[in-house]
């Protein structure tokens, strides 16, 4: 178990870039931060004593920490209590050995003194905790903090009670917290965490900013369409009584600086920011959001590391590593015990690189013994094709390419091999790009019981989509571009979800991400905080199914 913890901490260090660290049994130093692994029996109260900081400081540094996930093995950040000029945090050392590097030498631990200024003996039969607290001029909470056994029983004659020293302001902040043994948290510790958390603040008029490249030639049409969809969301919200002040800024091309935008006076008063597009703008905008505690929604890129160290970031587009792990889990659940056929339908060019999804699904299926896996190369004869398909199991056919050319070649091959009426159960499984080929192959999708995975999907026949498309056409006298995703709908979905969520829940928004009353048209929102001190990644994934009954079913896995 210990080796697993050390590996986890090592990976954290490698991820953020090695600077300096000192490894012990429960913590790692890195860039003047302490990454602490919660040990069995540890509580917030104990950590405040070890590191000489308040509960609020720990919770502020770890926005994802709650009474429900303060668990053995969790890694949290212990913030510095010093100024930026002297950032080394000095914990009371609880581990036998630490290797120091880069001249990082914490001072020796503070001296230990008795927690009791005197002992009180219970001499009266009906003496109470209240009586003793009054006698010594201390609170009941202070008395129980020094004598935790009193929480669960009454006083008895002959008991010796520890009378603690008068508390400093820091001690008063943490005195209500109790020990947590075997996963059971006491009432006072729950109260401590709940009281330390920021109280819910109501939101009146929402102030939102969009920072996107509206004049950059290559991306202009997509960004304008996103903005147009966003405006439709604002209009819909205003009709329900939600007031929004929207500020829109042109970020310019990727090499341009956005510092002039961030210096605008109104930017410091934003409730939420949407953008940017270019990776070069993410770091300065993320830093601005962190410094000013403003939520930042990044709608487009899935490749940014800022989310791992910034609790205010929401990354909409799922990173591939998260996406594929979700797909594998849902694939195994949906197609249990299936016979999987991977078919290289067309000749691949010399510089061909296998799709990451295909590579990982092969590896995943090799460990899942309930599946059988067959591989077909290019165009074998009919008998070889038939032999690859099982007459008794569900057959899941995955083409090795996501291209439209592959589908154009595949469907006639399947029909020629199995005919229109067949006894073999065959289902097609493929890629997000397939939704852009629907107009070319919708009949074949239905005929071959087709599935594909995607983070984005719009059912153009759904009543809500028809209404939105009509409104878009009415407002802008044009249709949306047939892209993946559709940027106008993405603007609508993200704008509506976040603005309504903030208006409804205010400062408690992060605790109610799954409770926002809204059904998106194209994307699902299933946010996962990446760690206790980082932001949120959207892990939502759809399986879209064109069934033989001519229904389009979008499965949103929970």
UniProtKB/TrEMBL annotation:
Region (Disordered): 82-111
Gene3D superfamilies reported in the protein's UniProt record: 3.40.50.2300, LysM domain
Matches recorded under SUPFAM superfamilies: LysM domain, Periplasmic binding protein-like I
Pfam families found in the cross-reference section: LysM
Sequence ranges assigned to domain LysM in this UniProt record: 34-78, 119-163
Any one GO molecular-function label of the UniProt entry: lytic endotransglycosylase activity
Ranges of biased composition (kind: Polar residues): 82-95
Entries under SMART domains matching the protein: LysM
InterPro entries: LysM (IPR018392), LysM_dom_sf (IPR036779), Peripla_BP_I (IPR028082)
Name of this chain's protein: LysM domain-containing protein
Organism: termite gut metagenome
């Amino acid at each position: 178990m210990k080796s697993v913890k050390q590996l986890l901490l090592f990976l954290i260090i490698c991820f953020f870039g090695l600077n300096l660290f000192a490894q012990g049994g429960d913590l790692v130093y890195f860039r003047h931060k302490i990454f602490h692994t919660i040990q069995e029996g540890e509580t917030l109260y104990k950590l405040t004593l070890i590191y000489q900081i308040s509960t609020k400081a720990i919770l502020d540094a770890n926005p994802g920490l709650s009474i429900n996930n303060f668990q053995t093995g969790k890694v949290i950040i212990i913030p510095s209590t010093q100024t930026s000029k002297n950032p080394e945090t000095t914990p009371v050392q609880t581990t036998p050995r630490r290797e120091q590097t880069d001249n990082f030498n914490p001072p020796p631990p503070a001296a230990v003194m008795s927690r009791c200024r005197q002992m009180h003996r219970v001499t009266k039969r009906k003496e109470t905790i209240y009586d003793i607290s009054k006698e010594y001029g201390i609170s009941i909470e202070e008395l129980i903090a020094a004598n935790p056994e009193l929480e669960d029983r009454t006083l008895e004659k002959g008991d010796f009670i520890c009378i603690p020293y008068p508390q400093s302001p820091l001690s008063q902040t943490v005195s209500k917290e109790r020990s947590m043994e075997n996963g059971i948290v006491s009432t006072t510790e729950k109260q401590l965490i709940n009281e330390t958390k920021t109280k819910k603040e109501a939101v009146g008029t929402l102030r939102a900013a969009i920072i996107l490249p509206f004049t950059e030639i290559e991306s202009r049409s997509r960004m304008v369409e996103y903005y147009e969809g966003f405006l439709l969301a604002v209009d819909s919200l205003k009709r329900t009584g939600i007031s929004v002040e929207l500020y829109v800024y042109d970020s310019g091309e990727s090499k341009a600086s956005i510092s002039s935008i961030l210096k605008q006076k109104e930017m410091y008063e934003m409730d939420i920011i949407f953008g940017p597009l270019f990776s070069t703008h993410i770091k300065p905008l993320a830093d601005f959001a962190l410094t000013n505690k403003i939520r930042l929604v990044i709608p487009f890129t899935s490749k940014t590391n800022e989310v791992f160290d910034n609790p205010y970031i929401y990354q909409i587009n799922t990173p591939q590593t998260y996406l594929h792990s979700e797909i594998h889990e849902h694939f195994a659940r949906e197609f249990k015990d299936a016979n999987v056929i991977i078919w290289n339908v067309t000749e691949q060019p010399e510089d061909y690189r296998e799709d990451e999804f295909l590579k990982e699904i092969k590896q995943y299926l090799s460990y899942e013994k309930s599946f059988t896996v067959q591989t077909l190369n290019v165009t074998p004869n009919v008998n070889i094709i038939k032999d690859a398909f099982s007459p008794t199991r569900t057959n899941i056919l995955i083409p090795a390419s996501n291209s439209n050319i592959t589908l154009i070649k595949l469907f006639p091959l399947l029909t020629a091999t199995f005919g229109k009426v067949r006894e073999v159960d065959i289902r097609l499984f493929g890629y997000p790009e397939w939704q852009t080929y629907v107009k070319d192959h919708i009949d074949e999708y239905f005929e071959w019981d087709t599935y594909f995975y995607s983070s984005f999907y719009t059912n153009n026949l759904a009543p809500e989509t028809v209404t939105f498309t009509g409104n878009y056409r009415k407002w802008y006298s044009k249709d949306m571009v047939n892209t993946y995703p559709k940027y106008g709908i993405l603007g609508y979905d993200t704008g509506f979800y976040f603005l309504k969520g903030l208006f409804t829940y205010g400062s408690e928004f992060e605790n109610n991400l799954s409770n926002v009353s809204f059904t998106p048209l194209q994307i699902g929102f299933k946010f996962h905080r990446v760690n206790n001190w980082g932001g949120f990644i959207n892990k939502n994934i759809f399986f879209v199914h064109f069934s033989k009954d001519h229904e389009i079913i979008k499965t949103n896995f929970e």
